[in-house]
Amino acid sequence: MKVLFIGGTGNISTEVSKLAVSQGIELYLLNRGTTNVVIPGAKTITANIYDVEETRKALKDHSWDVVVNWIAFIPDHVQNDIDLFMGKTKQYIFISSASIYQKPPTSHVITESTPIVNPFWGYSRDKIKCEELLQKVYQEKGFPMTIVRPSHTYDKTIPISIGGWTEYTAIDRMKKGKKVIIHGDGTSLWTLTNSADFAKGFNGLLGNNQAIGHAIQITSDEVLNWNQIYQIVAETAGAELNAVHVSTEFITKVAPGQKDGLWGDKAHCAIFDNSKIKSLVPTYQATIPFREGFKRTLDWFEADPKRMVVNPETNAMMDRIIEAYESAF
Q1: Does the residue 113 lie in any domain?
Q2: Is the domain of 49 the same as that of 129?
Q3: What's the total number of domains in the chain?
Q4: Domain for residue 280, yes or no?
Q5: What's the pLDDT score for residue 120?
């Protein structure tokens, strides 16, 4: 199977790329050649996907069994792909986001038929528009699309709400005994998925004709609340958790930049029904609990001091929120 990944070296896609090569897939990565991530066994095509003519020239001698775009965020990106790959691929996979689902939710379990509407986050609304475009072209022209909706998927990223992701800021605070912020009372339920687990489900969709025309979510079945997540993070870091619970409303009033990611995503419960991916890929099962997966993540950060980025602006923002909250209450 000949597969093109547009991107393929990011937070989620790196593990997918590695697994694809190990499965014997003939994998090509299209990128601008600026990444430091190397996928042994994959072939690289250098081009800027956002430059359609440059990409068309780079791909003119190729046709594909599957094309996956990991870095399409707005309808124009998807339309470019439709123009490039109509008649050139047997399957096109668009990476959407589980953040598109109804906020706030009206049901405690999310399925692929949960309404898609997010009035809080522009990123999610753009993903919805991308999905709508693909559904239209599939219905009217038979473009062989599959939509995949990851939720909060982590690898070399710290999956907490403030002071994490590519930063080490919150971990540094924990180790120094400083206070960290948990949004709300910490009891809302959340799902975290390790990229290596996601890859097992995703790669089962490559070349899977039964997936064409469908939207499919892929997550872990492990559900934790935010208090548990932060406690695991602190324990893994060898620190005592010194948490301050601050309402999302208060956080976003003091730090408006946090609004999209909280109101548009993490402030709401997220529990997923994975029946559909398991019916399409019967072998799929997420087997990496967060405690184990995060240990791998933290080991990666701490293997190189350059990765342990402590952002003074994030620190100042967290101090400002905590001071304002404690002064008010």
Answers
A1: yes
A2: yes
A3: 2
A4: no
A5: 96
111, 273 Cβ separation under 8 angstroms: yes
Tens-place pLDDT, residues 70-121: 999 999 999 999 999 999 999 999 999 999 999 999 998 999 999 999 999 9
Residue 145: the pLDDT is 98
Residues 177 and 110 in one domain: no
Strands 189-194 and 223-225: antiparallel
Looking at residue 53, its amino acid is E
pLDDT in tens, 148-191: 999 999 999 999 999 999 999 999 999 999 999 999 999 999 99
Classify residue 83 as exposed, middle or buried by CB count within 10 Å of its CB (0-12, 13-18, 19+).
Answer: exposed
Residue 278 lies in a domain: no
Q: Burial level of 149, CB count in 10 A (0-12/13-18/19+)?
A: buried
**CA–CA separation, 133 vs 260, rounded Å?**
24
C-alpha distances out from residue 310 to 85, 173, 300, Å: 42, 9, 16
Q: Residue 241 sits in a domain of what CATH number? A: 3.90.25
Domain co-membership, 149 together with 69 = yes
% of the chain with per-residue pLDDT over 90: 96
Per-residue confidence (pLDDT) for residue 34, from 0 to 100? 75
* Residue 274 domain-assigned (yes or no): no
d(CA 278, CA 236): 31
> Going edge to edge, which strands form the sheet with 189-194?
152-154, 189-194, 223-225
Give per-residue pLDDT as tens, 272-302: 999 999 999 999 999 999 999 999 999 999 9
User: How far apart (Å, rounded) are the C-alpha atoms in residues 222 and 283?
Assistant: 17
Are both 76 and 176 inside the same structural domain? no
Please tell me whether residues 248 and 324 are part of one structural domain: yes
On the question of pLDDT at 35 being above 90, the answer is no
With a CB cutoff of 8 Å and minimum separation 6, the contacts of 34 are none
Whole-Å CA distances, 88 to 61, 140, 176: 10, 17, 55
**Full-model pTM:** 0.96
- Tell me which residue range forms the domain holding 19: 2-153+194-218
